[in-house]
Structure formats: structure tokens, C-alpha cells
Amino acid sequence: MSKRILMVEDNTDNRQIVRDLIAGTGYELIEAHDGAAGVAAAAVHKPDLILMDIQLPVMDGYEAARRIKADPALRHIPIIAVTSYALSGDEAKASAAGCDGYVAKPFSPRQLLAKIAEFIG
């Protein structure tokens, strides 16, 4: 069974970039377009990893991460913040919200794949 990645991203172009990147890896990709949908998708699909944008409609990525980590059935799922928030302190803020990893946009494909492999092989 292939490992499942949930991508929570509202930007169509960014979703396509990650979709193309993941296509050749053997991972199964599930998509959600806002934070609330991401929390719901995590509960339904129980992915092996979540790629979480921070700047999202409905519910931002910080709150979505907090809600996922507050759920005993989901808290074990690693969350990687993939965000254009790359100022000093933003990585610490993502970590405080429950994110286990952090990748700043724009990212190199190799960088994102290495971070994914770090968590799920």
C-alpha cells in the first residue's frame, strides 16, 4: 500500500507543482483547498503526512495544524508547513502550532522530496 500525503493548499498553481512532483514517487496524493477541508480530509483519509500551507481561506494553516494535533486519532501524523511565510520567527510559529517540519516557498523539488522522505521514507 502506497503512503498517502494530504496537501492542504489553496493556490491552483502550487497544487499543480506538488501534484507533478509527487506523480513520479509512488505516493498517493489527496488534496484540500482550505484549512477546514484539510482538517476534515485528515480525519477521513488518515494520511501518512500532511503538507500544510499557512495562508489559507476559511481556517489558516496554524489553526488547522492545531486542530489536527489536538485529535488523538490524528496527532501522530507529521505536518510539514509549506509556506511563503519565511520571515524570522515564522518557522517557530509553525512549530508552536504543531507542524513537525517547515519548507519555505519557493522550494526546490529536491528540497521538498527530501523533507517528505525524512518523515515517511
How would you describe this protein?
The chain is of the alpha/beta class. The protein has a single domain, classed as 3-Layer(aba) Sandwich (Rossmann fold), CATH 3.40.50. The chain contains five helices and five strands, in the order βαβαβαβαβα. The protein has a five-stranded parallel β-sheet, sandwiched between helices. Helix 2 packs parallel to helix 3. The longest helix has 12 residues. The protein is globular and about 30 Å long. The two termini are 13 Å apart. The mean pLDDT is 94. It comes from Labrys miyagiensis. Keywords: Phosphoprotein. InterPro entries: CheY-like_superfamily, Sig_transdc_resp-reg_receiver. This is Response regulator.
**Beta-strand residue fraction:** 15-25%
Q: Would you tell me which CATH topology applies?
A: Rossmann fold
Give the total of domains. Answer: 1
Category from helices, strands and their pairing: alpha/beta
InterPro entries: CheY-like_superfamily, Sig_transdc_resp-reg_receiver
Keywords: Phosphoprotein
Protein name: Response regulator
Features:
5 strands; Rossmann fold; 44% helix; globular; 121 residues; alpha/beta
Task: Please specify the SSE layout and strand pairing.
Elements: E1 4-8, H1 12-23, E2 28-32, H2 35-45, E3 49-52, H3 61-70, E4 79-83, H4 90-97, E5 101-104, H5 109-120
Helix pairs in contact: 2-3
Modified residues (4-aspartylphosphate): 53
Protein name: Response regulator
Pfam family, one: Response_reg
Summarize the structure.
With 121 residues, the protein is of the alpha/beta class. Helix content is 44%, strand content 19%.
